[in-house]
Amino acid sequence: MDLSNKVAVVTGSARGIGKAIALKLAEVGADVVVNDIPAAAEVLEGTAHEIRALKRKTLAITADVSSSADVNKFIETAAAQMGRIDILVNNAGVTRDQLIMRMTDEEWDTVLNIDLKSAFLCSRAVIRYMMKQRWGRIISIASVVGLGGNAGQANYAAAKAGIIGLTKSIAKEVGSRNITANAIAPGFIETKMTEALDEKQRQILVQRIPLQSIGTPRDVAEAVAFLASEEARYITGQVLGVDGGMGLG
Ligand code: NAP
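Above: the input record for the complex with NAP. Below: its predicted structure, written as tokens.
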């Protein structure tokens, strides 16, 4: 895989899966714009520092990707300073788990806005550059939960299922311009998002994974790099499970 001369934008890349994706894309030659919320500015600068150490160009832009105004400014700045945008990775996401009977409007709206609306806003903003270039890759991080649902995660599962519908629609709309759109559905990956689970919960989860282990951010990053590459030119509108077989049921 060679992403030399390509510019990638990765949302929510201060830490976790987003950071691993940004570093992997830089390792295979891309220049990478990293993003996170203003409160994570210092940690985000750490990701940018590691990309510079790989001798790639980078730009760290803080923006709340659930805000239309923030996203438009963020993508305009990225395109103006880097000269182009070839790859978008919609990675930013949060959870606000709660049983449906107790779920507040705020818990619903927060997750739908940060996990789903953000992917719409960022995709809409980058597509005009990709259309002009007649080349583009949009890769969105969904979840096994978006395919199978999960008790206590109605908001998150709805947002991740929405990512899949959004991805398939974009694939149909812009395929003629040589732009592909794919989703990745990770299973259980070791990050800040999953650190709250106790040992017993982990053991129960691992028993449900055919490969018998928890995934790493790097496992997801490898799949993203492939989908971003020229080698994946004929793959669009797909959902790739990176889950150790967990999604098989
Ligand atoms: P994480 O460690 O919590 O990282 C998510 C990043 O997104 C954080 O840096 C977070 O910033 C940032 N973020 C949150 N709200 C944002 C906003 N409004 N604008 C910009 N950035 C924002 O989680 P992760 O596990 O790496 O998750 C990455 C993606 O993978 C998410 O879409 C998640 O749903 C998905 N996923 C994860 C797993 C898993 O097992 N970990 C499984 C399936 C899917 P702060 O931390 O500073 O708030």
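Notes for the reader.
Helices lie at 16-27, 41-53, 68-82, 105-133, 144-148, 154-174, 199-207, 217-228.
The chain has one domain: 7-189+217-248.
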